[in-house]
User: Fold PepSY domain-containing protein from Bradyrhizobium canariense.
Amino acid sequence: MLMRVSRAALCALVIVPVVSPAYGLTSQEVVAKLESAGYSQIREMKSGKIMTYKAVRAGKEVSLVIDSFGKVKELP
Assistant:
């Protein structure tokens, strides 16, 4: 019985960080992530629950979306 509980606890510790969503990120954390990816002049655009940003990269202004896993995608 103790071994079963220990395995369940271990699985929870391994799985929880993998599926934690990005919507828990603060604006400052998102900006830091974008800056580390090479973006500058970052500003958040208000669009409801979706995190969208405008930023400059390589001298060109781009629109960005941050998905629920924290991945950055440039919009066309």
Notes: The helical segments are 2-19, 27-36. The radius of gyration is 17 Å. The chain has one domain: 21-75.
